[in-house]
Amino acid sequence: MHAPNGEPESTVTVLLTGADSQLSKALLRVLAKAAYRFDGRTLRVHALSHAELDIGDKQSVEAAFARFKPEWVINCAAYNAVDRAEMAADEAYRVNSLGPELLASECALTGARLVHISSDYVFSGEPACIAELALNQNSLTDSSLSNSGLIESGLTERGLTENATPAPLSVYGQSKLAGEQAVLRILAERAIVIRTAWLYGVDGHNFVKTMLRLMATASDAQPLTVINDQIGSPTWVDALAYLIWQLIASPLSVGCGSGLFHYAGQGQCSWYEFALEIQRQALALKLLDKAVPISAIDSLSYAAKALEKGNKLAPRPSYSALNSDKVRQCLTGQNLALTHCPELWRDWRWQLKAMLEDYAAKGL
Ligand SMILES: NC(=O)C1=CN([C@@H]2O[C@H](COP(=O)(O)OP(=O)(O)OC[C@H]3O[C@@H](n4cnc5c(N)ncnc54)[C@H](OP(=O)(O)O)[C@@H]3O)[C@@H](O)[C@H]2O)C=CC1
Ligand SMILES: Cc1cn([C@H]2C[C@H](O)[C@@H](COP(=O)(O)OP(=O)(O)O[C@H]3O[C@@H](C)C(=O)[C@@H](O)[C@H]3O)O2)c(=O)[nH]c1=O
């Protein structure tokens, strides 16, 4: 008995786009450790780089589907340069919106299922979006829905749910929102769209690695300045990878509603608090020799300083912490094996420690 692609029935073919991304590398790393099986079948994963598959090119997408005949596609490809996207909107939309649309259309034709990744930058952090969070929690009256009041009351502590209203401030955020909407329009519940945030891991470019580099070279005379009025949820990319394999291994029941999910490290912080914690943990692991001064700065002053140097920054959300309860309830409700995967529901500080230990072990 053979599957449509001619391979033995006992394998499930998964196609990863954007093979050089942080996420694609984490998916392969996690799979090597966890040896997931799917209905007793093993996985056959094909990870295609940008050069091998351009997701914004219809012919390229059709050729990849024709060649590999995937049952699942995980879209790790994206245009992620948030500042550059402001001046390169066409390319950002081609990769972040047209790309997912082409993948979803091909999945609809072939019956494959799609996991697509979106971003917390679809939110603005403005009071209207936060207000929705409070209303979802049935906790406040209209008169008390002020942004600062919510933060003081602790109601934002659990983050934005899937019901919060997106209002992206940047071209990157707008193009990501267009991409997730296209996928859900075409595939509805056959798609899994995961909004995540502030991703970091041992591979590729990310805030943690940038901070480690800057901390290693900063001096008392030139301290680091880091924004303290943007709040979000740092997320270890390996934990996201575990979640994705888990979602593929245990398809969710219809009761889980739409295919849109939030997933991030638990808790929330500002970039400034994140930087302080990176330094604290890196010193403890001897990844850094000495502490360097880190000062807090507000977004407006940071953007003004960047502009003085000729760099125009894209606006970023002031509040975009994500609430992962929906996906957690859907998964744990039906798969007790999740207790073997504690990384998923850990506080962001725990996840950071896991990443830095991995980083130290690799001698990076
Ligand atoms: N990084 C983050 O903090 C966050 C990321 N996300 C989302 O998570 C997903 C994974 O992100 P991450 O692992 O950080 O990604 P990376 O930035 O590490 O990698 C993105 C990859 O996409 C590739 N790529 C760009 N354009 C195309 C294209 N047209 N066709 C195929 N490949 C292309 C790039 O290749 P090349 O470099 O060769 O062009 C690169 O390898 C993305 O959807 C991203 O938007 C969501 C929230 C936070
Ligand atoms: C390097 C640096 C950044 N910052 C600020 C700028 C910015 O507001 C914030 C993060 O900076 P970065 O440019 O590293 O990160 P940024 O590109 O904004 O990160 C985003 O990437 C996209 C892809 C996402 O989807 C988001 O979830 C988020 O992770 O920290 C400082 O304040 N000081 C610094 O020294």
Automatic annotation (TrEMBL):
Highest taxon above the source species: Bacteria
The keyword Repeat appears for this protein: no
Domain RmlD-like substrate binding: 13-333
This protein's UniProt keywords: NADP, Oxidoreductase
InterPro entries registered for this protein in UniProt: dTDP_dehydrorham_reduct, NAD(P)-bd_dom_sf, RmlD-like-bd
Transferase found in the keyword field: no
Pathway per the UniProt entry: Carbohydrate biosynthesis; dTDP-L-rhamnose biosynthesis
EC identifiers of the protein: 1.1.1.133
Reactions mediated catalytically: dTDP-beta-L-rhamnose + NADP(+) = dTDP-4-dehydro-beta-L-rhamnose + NADPH + H(+)
Cofactor note: Binds 1 Mg(2+) ion per monomer.
Signal sequence bounds: none
Enzyme class: oxidoreductase
Cofactor dependence: Mg(2+)
SUPFAM superfamilies noted in UniProt: NAD(P)-binding Rossmann-fold domains
Pfam families: RmlD_sub_bind
Family to which this protein belongs: Belongs to the dTDP-4-dehydrorhamnose reductase family.
UniProt cross-references to PANTHER family, sorted A to Z: DTDP-4-DEHYDRORHAMNOSE REDUCTASE (PTHR10491), METHIONINE ADENOSYLTRANSFERASE 2 SUBUNIT BETA (PTHR10491:SF4)
Role according to the record: Catalyzes the reduction of dTDP-6-deoxy-L-lyxo-4-hexulose to yield dTDP-L-rhamnose.
Protein name according to UniProt: dTDP-4-dehydrorhamnose reductase
